[in-house]
């Protein structure tokens, strides 16, 4: 795990750069696709609990330094998603090889539905009421569809990066 920490951090920072430079400018129905939440979710589904929570923290904190929302809220939502996905990943539910081909995308779509809701509720609890603009349902729908489409490729990258430095058993 410690050998994979550096590559996971580097990929997480690249994800933040992609989020800020490309995805934040693209809007679907006025909504930004949050790759910074899909990445830790995919790490969790790959079964890397600590790495997924670390990637959620890194992507969330670095994204929040450029957002006008409560600092740390993106990281908190990412950590919650990563932990939930890692529980499923440890059970092998979202495994790309042994589960049905549709399981990982459907789980990711569920994460895409839940993440904006958690974000809005978190903003409400931190007294940041501007997050509730009535567009939460659109945020949920757009992120669910985007996570559904991107889940398998992002999960493959997550598994590849998480396995860096892993010992091969013979």
Can you put this structure into words, describing what you see?
By secondary structure, the chain is mostly helical. It has one domain (2-162). It contains six helices and no strands. It has helices spanning 2-23, 35-45, 49-64, 73-91, 103-125, 136-162. Helix 2 runs antiparallel to helix 3 (49-64) and helix 4 (73-91) runs antiparallel to helix 5 (103-125). The longest helix has 27 residues, at 136-162. The protein is globular and about 45 Å long. The relative contact order is 0.17. The mean pLDDT is 87.
List the helices and strands and how they pair.
Blueprint: H1 2-23, H2 35-45, H3 49-64, H4 73-91, H5 103-125, H6 136-162
Helix pairs in contact: 1-3, 2-3, 2-4, 2-5, 2-6, 3-4, 4-5, 5-6
Salient structural properties:
6 helices, 170 residues, mainly alpha, single chain, 69% helix, globular
**Portion of residues in helices?**
55-70%
- Determine the N-to-C terminus distance: 19 Å
Q: Tell how many strands the DSSP assignment holds.
A: 0
SS element count, helices: 6
Counting structural domains, the number is: 1
Shape: globular
Strand-residue proportion: under 5%
**Unreliable segments of 5+ consecutive residues:** none
Largest sheet: none
Rg is 15 Å
The structure class reads mainly alpha
Quick rundown:
The chain has six helices and no strands. With 170 residues, it is an all-alpha fold.
């Amino acid at each position: 795990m410690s050998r994979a920490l550096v590559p996971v951090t580097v990929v997480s920072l690249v994800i933040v750069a992609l989020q800020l430079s490309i995805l934040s400018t693209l809007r679907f129905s006025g909504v930004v696709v949050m790759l910074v939440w899909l990445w830790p979710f995919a790490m969790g589904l790959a079964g890397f609990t600590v790495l997924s929570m670390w990637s959620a923290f890194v992507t969330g904190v670095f994204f929040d330094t450029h957002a006008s929302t409560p600092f740390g809220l993106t990281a908190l939502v990412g950590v919650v998603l990563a932990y939930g996905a890692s529980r499923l990943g440890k059970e092998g539910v979202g495994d790309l090889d042994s589960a049905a081909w549709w399981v990982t995308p459907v789980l990711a779509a569920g994460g895409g539905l839940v993440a904006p809701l958690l974000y809005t509720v978190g903003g409400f609890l931190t007294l940041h009421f501007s997050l509730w603009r009535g567009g939460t349902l659109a945020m949920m729908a757009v992120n669910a569809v985007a996570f559904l489409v991107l889940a398998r490729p992002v999960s493959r990258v997550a598994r590849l990066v998480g396995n860096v430095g892993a010992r091969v058993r013979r």
